[in-house]
Amino acid sequence: MVENILSTIICDEFERQIRPHDGKQWPHKHGLKFTFSLWYRDDERMSRDGFYPKTEMLLYAECNYVGVYVRTYDVHGLDTKEEDAKWECMSHHDSCWRTDGVQRFLWENREILNGIGQVFKPWCEKVEVNEELKEELREIRRRKYNR
After folding, report:
1. Which of 38, 75, 91, 119 could tie 100 with a disulfide, CB 3.0–4.6 Å?
2. Alpha-carbon distance 94 to 89, whole Å?
């Protein structure tokens, strides 16, 4: 139940901040990034310094299809540094991104979802998607969907 509410809030925020429905602002230059705190029940995901990794979700629509991308890295960079963390494509679709991407991520992690946002920072962040990141996201989609 809470996953559905949170999914609706996240998707509505993306629609409000990033994705206008008039189509005049394509290609989009920004995405919306959310940070999650996941509380793993076992210690195998805990980093060497005793902290759990940070999980980020990026929503980005180059045109009318919205991509939902997730990556995880160690906050202190002892295991996987932020710049080395690879994005995974959860979904890339014109309408099903809400359920196949955002809602599925929240559902799969519902038992370990500890929080959203970071201390003393906004709960989501508008980020610039430069050409390098666009190409990285395209390549991830090509590998996932064979197209």
Report:
1. 91
2. 14
In the chain, what are the domain boundaries? Answer: 2-145
- Cα–Cα distance, 99 to 93 (Å, whole number): 10
- Within a 13 Å sphere around the CA of 51, how many CA atoms are in the beta-carbon half? 14
Residue 124 one-letter amino acid: C
Task: List, in sequence order, every residue forming a beta bridge with 100; answer none if it has no partner.
Answer: none
Whole-prediction pTM: 0.85
CA distances from 81 to 17, 47, 123 (A): 28, 11, 21
The closest alpha carbon to 97, from 14, 20, 5, belongs to 14
Residue scoring higher pLDDT (42 or 130): 130
The rounded distance, in Å, linking the Cα atoms of 7 and 99 is 8
Name the token pair of 120: 């003393």
Q: What is the pLDDT of residues 86-131, one digit of tens each?
A: 899 999 998 899 999 999 999 998 888 877 877 667 889 999 999 9
Taking alpha carbons only, the member of 47, 43, 103 closest to residue 70 is 103
Indicate the DSSP class of residue 1: -
